[in-house]
Amino acid sequence: MNGERILFVTGRFAEQPLREVVNRLASEVGFAAYVAVTKISVAALLHADWLAGQLQIDESVDRVILPGWCQGDLKRLEAQFRIPFELGPKDLFDLAAHFGARQKEPVDLSQYTIEILAEINHAPRMADDEILSLAEHYRSSGADLIDLGCIPGESWSRVADVTKLLVDHGLRVSIDSFERAEVEAAVTAGAELVLSCNQSNVDWASQLDAEVVAIPEAPFSLDSLEQTVQQLIRSGSRFRIDPILEPIGFGFAASLGRYFEARKRWPEFEILMGIGNLTELTEVDSAGMNFLLAGLCEELGIRSVLTTEVINWARSSVREFDLARRLTRHSIKKQALPKHVDSKLVTLRDSKLRVSGEEVLNSLAGQITDPNYRIFAERGELHVMNRDGYWRGTDPFELFRRVRFNAEKPLSEGHTFYLGYEICKAATALQLGKQYVQDQELTWGFLSTDAGSGSSGRHATEY
Predict the structure, then answer these.
(1) What is residue 254's predicted lDDT score, i.e. its pLDDT?
(2) Is residue 299 part of a domain?
């Protein structure tokens, strides 16, 4: 791409911001940039047939990039000018992504220090294939160990078989039980960590060929943990400690304080935090909560967490914490705010919004001469326009009724579906504070998919 001479075509309203964007890109990517400003004010009105009679292109230009809204057959332009033509993004500020350019140095988010234990709750009640499927899901989401959650008061006869099944699939396993037979069978089959150990089972747990998690007799007292810790030290056991995170309303703030106290009292010991007590027991989207907990763990040197995905609002907690542990590690290592680094955990709203503005939309509406609909969502309203009119409002049903009523001819079934889908998507973006771009899917951070109109490539002109 070095040395390539690229002509960017635009309308009058977008000239200045386009020049600023392409001049920066030219130096970063390595090409010579030229801008051709047409007589049309709004780039969304451009059409290949009209450009064929208007463009004057120097023979030294290697290719031409048109606004993504431009209609018509580009092959006509390529035949006329004997150079490649292509559509760029609909938003000129997305040109950097179009070129694959880096607006800043790439951020390495491959490093993390916190280990994730993902618990399979009530594992004895599940079939082997269910357990394996959930374990694989947790692993693909970022879990380092699969924790088999047993049922208090019962003894799971197949714990060894299931542990071996997971180990044979390359999974690391921990066992969550106070039942001696269960724990010993799981450890013999390959479990490497035991949750948990206190005065009730330390005598035999300290003899296991596995690491154990030491917990206090009562969550409100670290002194009750001291005795177990000393016994594990004397026996030469491998262990980490868990002061126990309490739910909100049941001593949450005080339990956070105990993690600070534990780090001061035992600076050399590894600590585990059971974050599921917060994410599962608090009715709120879990992504932000997981990030705050990851930041706390990173700053306190807590190098393992136990979580799960039982309740629906926490159904992606493992993936959320995996993203969070990487971002918090980067933030602390670089002494930089965790902002404008990676937006995958911004799912409900978007990081920033761009608007066309009143002047641009009014100008566009006054110059459209084709039947294709342009849809926008900004400044608290939905906007739909084509040559038959410009309709705006906050109620998508009322807006759609007005569009249909004013259509020059009855809308086809496909066009009706298209407009309904796009207006619904625009209304969702407006309500949540997301960027709406016609024919492109809304972004949902790490939850985004390629499904819908964006992946199919359909747009208004196809109906």
Answers:
(1) 96
(2) yes
Q: What is the DSSP letter of 337?
A: -
CATH number of the domain that 315 lies in? 3.20.20.20
Helices (H) and strands (E) in the chain, counts: 17, 15
Strand 115-120 vs strand 85-87: parallel, antiparallel, or unpaired? Answer: unpaired
CA distances from 106 to 102, 133, 336, 342 (A): 7, 34, 14, 10
Distance CA 263, CA 270 (A): 9
56 and 151 co-located in one domain: no
What's the chain's average pLDDT? Answer: 91
Residue 203 tokens, joined: 């005598």
Considering the domain architecture, whether residues 150 and 290 belong to the same structural domain is answered as yes
CATH of the domain at 37: 3.40.50
User: Do residues 294 and 304 lie in contact, with contact meaning Cβ atoms separated by under 8 Å?
Assistant: no
CA angle 449, 452, 458 (to 5 degrees): 135
Measure the CA dihedral 324/241/193/122, to 10°: -70
Domain of residue 83 covers 4-99
User: pLDDT tens for residues 62-79?
Assistant: 999 999 889 899 999 999
Amino acid at 197: C
Q: Is residue 107 part of a domain?
A: no
- Do 279 and 165 lie in one domain? The reply is yes
| CA gap 153, 178 in Å, rounded | 9
Place of tokens 């970022």: 142
Q: Directed axis angle between helix 159-168 and helix 128-141, to 10°?
A: 40
128 and 269 within one domain: yes
Residues 235, 279 share a domain: yes
DSSP 159-174: HHHHHHHHHHTT--EE
321: Cα separation from own chain's centroid: 11
Co-location of 280 and 193 in the same domain: yes
Angle among Cα 115, 121, 124 to the nearest 5 degrees reads: 125
Q: Which pLDDT score is estimated for 251?
A: 95
Which residue is listed with tokens 């002047």?
A: 359
Domain match, 158 and 241 both: yes
Whole-angstrom distance, CA of residue 229 vs CA of residue 202: 9
Cα–Cα distance measured from residue 6 to residue 15, given in angstroms and rounded to the nearest whole number:
16
The answer to whether position 238 is within a domain reads: yes
CA distances from 95 to 26, 202, 231, 300, 367 (A): 11, 62, 63, 41, 25
* pLDDT for 275: 98
pTM score of the predicted model: 0.82
Are residues 380 and 310 part of one domain? Answer: no
Domain assignment present for residue 105? The answer is no
How many domains does the chain contain in total? 3
Report the Cα 29 to chain-centroid distance in Å: 27
Q: What is the pLDDT of residues 251-268, one digit of tens each?
A: 999 999 999 999 999 999
Element housing 365 (H / E): helix 358-367
Q: At what angle do helices 317-334 and 286-300 cross, to 10 degrees?
A: 40
